[in-house]
Design brief:
Blueprint (H helix, E strand, L loop, with lengths): L14 H22 L11 H26 L4 H17 L30 H22 L5 H25 L1
């Protein structure tokens, strides 16, 4: 025996429709609320991701300046270090660094000193390369730690640049010995 259809007409969505759409609506609401909440735009304080991105850009910019100082002190290393420095500059740009990078000393003959010189460059080439490798290793480690708390895309970028930094350490240590 089948039941006759209800005499009253249904208005509005059916229960099955609501149950099918509800999870998607919650997901969209959660995603949009989470991206605006930490102050991504117009907030008084930058989000943790923005701070991590700015720090990574600053680290790359300072590392490029350190490469410049080593090349200025040891011009024979210019050819060997040029590709690594260029990659460090690209890393800074990938993190959103808008500061104009100082020109590489090997590309211009001006030799004008930087506004804030990085750490003193050792007199021996071997020690200068070891200093660069140590700086790359430290920054790579810092980025590896930062990626644990970073959102998806930034975490992938931090991981990629940290891996490149580890490769730079290898190339710098192999180049000196």
């Amino acid at each position: 025996m089948s039941f006759p259809p209800s005499p009253r007409a249904r208005s509005g969505p059916r229960r099955r429709s609501l149950l099918a759409v509800a999870p998607a609506a919650l997901l969209v609401a959660g995603c949009s609320a989470g991206s605006e909440d930490p102050g991504a735009s117009g907030g008084s304080r930058p989000s943790a991701a923005d701070r991590a991105r700015a720090r990574a850009a600053r680290d790359s910019r300072e590392l490029a300046e350190r490469y410049d100082a080593v090349v200025a002190a040891h011009p024979k290393l210019a050819e060997r270090l040029r590709p690594l420095r260029a990659e460090v500059v690209r890393h800074a740009e990938a993190f959103g660094d808008t500061a104009e990078p100082s020109p590489s000393p090997s590309s211009s003959g001006s030799g004008a000193p930087a506004a804030s010189p990085p750490a003193a460059v050792p007199a021996k080439e071997k020690d200068a390369l070891a200093g660069l490798a140590a700086a790359e290793r430290e920054i790579s480690g810092r980025r590896t730690e930062a990626l644990l708390d970073a959102p998806g895309e930034l975490a992938r970028l931090l991981a990629s640049v940290a891996a490149a930094g580890a490769a730079h350490v290898y190339l710098l240590t192999e180049a000196r010995g």
